[in-house]
Design brief:
- The complex is a heterodimer of chains A (about 130) and B (about 160).
- Chain A is an alpha/beta fold.
- Chain A has a domain of about 90 residues: Rhodanese-like domain (Oxidized Rhodanese, domain 1, 3-Layer(aba) Sandwich).
- In chain A, strands 1-5-4-2-3 form a 5-stranded parallel β-sheet, with helices on one face.
- Chain A is elongated, with a radius of gyration of 20 Å.
- Chain A starts with 5 loop residues before the first helix and ends in an 8-residue tail after the last strand.
- Chain B is mainly α.
- Helices cover about 75% and strands about 0% of the residues of chain B.
- The chains are: A alpha/beta (about 130), B mainly alpha (about 160).
- At the A-B interface, helix 1 of A face helix 3, helix 4 and helix 5 of B.
């Protein structure tokens, strides 16, 4: 069997990257390459604002392991499905505070973004939550 | 021992395993290539990749699986492809073992997003495949398409 050369590995990786990015840009189910940015109207707060609705943005299996008291579970992946059921009747001026992120995904930023898109005016993100990393 | 190592049957077994592993990797890559968002969710569950790199991994890794698998099946740069497959399997084994160690609720994300949960069986299976990949690296020499259609590196060096 012929020897493996460094150039073989470089070629394999570069070709994978080229094909992957090219295909992703054309794929209707493709992923967004840049991480989500926080809308300017969303504030980062250290404590839960008074009378705020608390939203846990992590996936269901984390929520079920324990969450903040009174929190509702609205992960960004299923936002369109869950939002009308849990938050559909909410006053747009009612404060909403979102939490929940891991090293690999900013669930809180994504859900906050979707809430702003639905017209909520007082959305904030809770920083430094000890239980945010299960 | 020396006679056993020199047995010609190894070459045929290596060819069989090479095609099997290659086909396996092609199969595993197809769903992930088609649904990168679902695969990205699987990558996220492992909590090993920082969030800024998750989309890159989700987009590139399945294509690396596909190309390495195709190279193995066809016998094009087969040794490099076998090392790539072995490296990926070693990485997957460590990743699955680490989520089991940390007790994260994770689907394996091996073939399909909603597939089986990660378990120690998954690790054992990946290690068996890793053993096959190393065997291929050691003994594979038959039926390389690149010998038929392409110049070998020896010929190019000449």
């Amino acid at each position: 069997m012929t020897r493996a050369r460094v150039v073989d590995f470089v070629f394999l990786v570069l070709l994978s990257a080229a094909l992957g990015f090219a295909f992703n840009s054309q794929n209707p189910q493709g992923v967004e390459l840049l991480p989500p940015s926080l809308p300017p109207s969303v504030q980062v707060v250290a404590a839960i604002p008074k009378d705020a609705v608390v939203v846990d943005a992590r996936p269901r299996q984390y929520f079920e392991r324990g969450s903040l008291p009174g929190a509702v579970n609205v992960p960004p992946q299923f936002f369109d499905l869950i939002y009308p059921m849990l938050l559909g009747n909410l006053d747009p001026e009612q404060p909403v505070v979102v939490f929940g992120r891991t090293w690999s995904r900013l669930y809180d930023v994504e859900t906050a973004r979707l809430l702003v898109e639905r017209g909520h005016e007082a959305v904030s993100i809770l920083e430094a939550l000890p239980e945010a990393r299960p | 021992m020396r006679r056993w190592l020199a047995w010609r049957g190894h070459f045929w077994i290596a060819l069989l395993l090479r095609v099997y592993l290659g086909g396996l990797f092609v199969l595993a890559s197809l769903y992930k290539i088609q649904f990168p968002a679902a695969f990205a969710d699987s990558v996220v569950e492992y909590q090993l990749v920082p969030y800024a790199l998750v989309p890159v991994v989700a987009v590139v890794l399945p294509w690396l699986e596909l190309l390495a698998g195709l190279c193995l099946v066809l016998g094009v740069r087969a040794k490099a492809a076998a090392w790539t497959v072995a490296g990926l399997l070693a990485m997957f084994s460590v990743a699955v073992a680490s989520v089991l160690w940390r007790g994260l609720p994770v689907g394996c994300g091996c073939f399909e997003a909603s597939g089986e949960p990660a378990s120690w069986l998954t690790v054992a299976r990946d290690l068996v495949w890793l053993g096959m990949a190393l065997y291929v690296i050691g003994y594979d020499r038959f039926l390389h398409l690149e010998r038929v259609f392409l110049l070998s590196s020896a010929e190019l060096d000449r």
